[in-house]
Amino acid sequence: MFNFMKAEQNAQHHSLQTSRRRFLLGAGGLGLAAMLPLSAQASLSAPVRKLRLHNLHTGEQVSADFWEEGQYLSDGLSTLNHIMRDFRENEEFDIDPKLFDQLYLLQQRLGKPGEIQIISGYRSPSTNAMLRRKSRGVAKKSYHMKGQAIDLRLPNVELSQLRRAALDLKVGGVGYYPKSNFVHLDTGPVRSWA
């Protein structure tokens, strides 16, 4: 079960741990260490959550507020659902909003609020079956078909760093595909694979 508050606390705790380490490294890092927790905490407690997504297959780019003052925004979710659609079938699906929460938290943990590159979002059953015929790495009952998964990468973030940050959130599944240059996230049970 996705627990946004616990994941938010984990992200804040990680940010504070990082700041403490920087502080202990020496007086030269004192100013930066003192400022980091404040900025990280401010972004996590911000009244609006926003994502910028770039679908690498269609070239589309969107920026959408999807959560504000304790509730999801239907217009923002609709915009994000569209860019996450199965582009092969041009089929949209209601993506699990918890997946967008995970992406938001991941960016906060990394301190990289920029663009998220979509390798794969929603997949229709026919698209998933076609991809399974081409690759052994595609699950028969993929969370992509439930609107609960994304394969992604972040510009200017090492894939191993992205994976580590996703694992540190301790929410959902995290798959690591360095040969294909992406990380898989889903809102299923906490687990990981490489």
Fold and architecture overview:
The protein has 194 residues and is of the alpha+beta class. Helix content is 42%, strand content 22%. The protein is built from 6 helices and 8 strands. It has helices spanning 4-25, 30-44, 74-83, 97-110, 125-134, 159-169, and strands at residues 48-55, 61-68, 71-72, 115-120, 149-153, 173-177, 182-186, 191-193. An 8-stranded mixed β-sheet has the order 3-2-1-4-5-7-6-8. A hairpin with a 5-residue loop joins β1 (48-55) and β2. The protein starts with a helix and ends with a strand. The model is unreliable at 15-44 (pLDDT under 50).
Short description:
Helices cover 42% and strands 22% of the residues.
- Rg over CA atoms: 17 Å
**Helix count?**
6
Give the strand tally. Answer: 8
Question: Could you give the order of strands across the largest sheet?
Answer: 3-2-1-4-5-7-6-8
Proportion of residues in β-strands: 15-25%
Summarize the main sheet. Answer: 8 strands, mixed
Going by helix content, strand content and strand pairing, the class is alpha+beta
Helical content, roughly?
A: 40-55%
Order of helices and strands: HHEEEHHEHEHEEE
Overall outline? globular
- How would you name the oligomeric state of the polypeptide chains in this document? single chain
| Intertermini distance | 22 Å
